[in-house]
Amino acid sequence: MAEPRYGNKPAASKDSVENKLKVAVCNGTVKLAAARSAIATNWTTALSKVGIG
To answer: Rounded distance, CA 21 to CA 53, Å?
Structure first.
């Protein structure tokens, strides 16, 4: 299923969150399990939930 590229919360916004989480996990700032849980629960609050946004 493709993510929409239009509207209030387009795929590009989610891509940005995913990329920031990826960097934080790779840097050791955030645990992988925490990043996965945060984005699966609500991607719009994922960064603040893990403490990087």
So the answer is: 10
